[in-house]
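TASK: fixed-backbone design
INPUT:
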C-alpha cells in the first residue's frame, strides 16, 4: 500500500526539482523530505532518486511514480471536494494565504466570522507574496490565497485555478505634511517626477508595477528607500524622506506628519481570491470567499 503523504512528498520534489524546494512547498524540513522519500523507496523496492551534483534527480522509476502521484493526489482532492459538497457542511481544514495588507485588512474579520459560523472548520493562515501564493495554491500548499494585481498590470493566473473578485482597493499618494502638494484635493503621479520615492522591495510585484507606471508617464523614479510593510513606508514618509503610493486596504491610522491625497485618475489594485479548480465544489472554499467579501465591505 503506497503512503499518500510520501507520494505527496515525491510530487513536491518533482514539481520543485530539489529537496529544499519540496521542503519549502510542504512547509517541512529538508530532513523530513529525505526521510519520507527513503521510506517510499523501501516501500516500492526501487531507487527513486539519484545524485546529481550537489542535488538529486528522479530516476526513471521516480519519474514514473511521480506522474502517478500527481494523478492520485488530484483524484484525492476531487474526492474530498465531492464529499464536502455532498455533505453540504463547512468542515475540515482550510489553509489560507494573503499578501500582507490583505491579511491585515481582511483576515481578522473574515476568519473570526468563519470560526463563529462554522466551528467545525479548522483554519490556518499566513502572509505571502501574490506570485508565490499562486504557485503554492496550484501545487496544493494552500487551499485559497488572496492575491492582487493593478489596474494597468494584470497578474497572470495559471490554468487550473479559479478566482473571485473580493474588492477594488484605491491607492493614494502619501507625502509629508510640509510637501508642496500636501494642501491639494487631488494630485497626478506626474506631479512627483522630481521627488524621492519610498517603495517595495526590488522585484516585488507592486514595486515592478510602480516602476512600470511611472516610466509609462515619462518619469524615471528616484527610489531612495525600500520597505516591505506599508507602515514602514509611511513612517519614512512622515520623517520627510520621500513619497509613496499608499493603498487604503489594511492601511490603519496614518502617522503624524503624513498627508494622503487621492490621485485624479484613480489608481487601484484588484484584490481577489484564487483556489484550485478541482476544489471548486468545497463548501469551505465558498464560505471563505463570502467571508472575505463581507470583510471587504466592512472595511470599505
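OUTPUT:
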Amino acid at each position: 500500500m503506497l503512503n499518500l503523504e510520501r507520494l505527496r512528498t515525491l510530487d513536491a520534489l518533482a514539481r520543485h526539482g530539489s529537496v529544499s524546494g519540496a521542503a519549502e512547498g510542504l512547509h517541512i524540513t529538508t530532513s523530513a523530505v529525505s526521510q519520507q522519500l527513503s521510506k517510499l523507496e523501501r516501500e516500492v523496492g526501487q531507487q527513486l532518486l539519484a545524485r546529481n551534483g550537489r542535488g538529486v534527480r528522479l530516476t526513471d522509476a521516480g519519474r514514473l511514480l511521480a506522474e502517478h502521484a500527481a494523478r492520485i493526489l488530484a483524484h484525492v482532492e476531487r474526492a474530498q471536494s465531492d464529499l464536502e459538497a455532498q455533505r453540504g457542511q463547512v468542515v475540515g481544514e482550510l489553509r489560507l494565504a494573503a499578501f500582507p495588507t490583505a491579511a491585515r485588512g481582511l483576515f481578522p474579520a473574515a476568519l473570526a466570522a468563519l470560526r463563529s459560523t462554522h466551528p467545525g472548520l479548522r483554519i490556518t493562515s499566513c502572509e505571502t507574496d501574490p506570485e508565490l501564493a499562486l504557485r503554492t495554491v496550484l501545487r496544493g500548499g494552500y487551499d485559497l490565497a488572496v492575491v492582487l494585481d493593478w489596474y494597468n498590470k494584470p497578474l497572470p493566473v495559471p490554468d487550473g485555478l479559479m478566482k473571485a473578485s473580493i474588492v477594488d482597493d484605491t491607492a493614494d499618494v502619501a507625502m509629508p505634511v510640509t510637501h508642496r502638494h500636501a494642501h491639494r484635493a487631488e494630485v497626478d503621479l506626474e506631479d512627483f517626477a522630481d521627488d524621492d520615492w519610498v517603495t517595495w522591495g526590488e522585484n516585488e510585484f507592486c514595486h515592478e508595477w510602480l516602476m512600470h507606471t511611472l516610466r509609462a508617464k515619462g518619469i524615471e523614479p528616484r527610489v531612495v528607500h525600500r520597505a516591505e510593510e506599508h507602515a514602514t513606508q509611511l513612517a519614512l514618509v512622515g520623517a520627510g524622506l520621500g513619497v509613496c503610493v499608499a493603498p487604503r486596504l489594511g492601511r490603519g491610522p496614518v502617522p503624524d506628519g503624513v498627508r494622503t491625497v487621492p490621485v485624479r485618475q484613480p489608481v487601484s489594485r484588484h484584490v481577489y481570491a484564487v483556489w484550485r479548480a478541482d476544489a471548486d465544489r468545497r463548501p469551505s472554499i465558498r464560505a471563505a470567499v463570502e467571508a472575505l467579501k463581507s470583510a471587504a465591505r466592512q472595511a470599505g
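COMMENT: The first strand starts at residue 49 and ends at 52.
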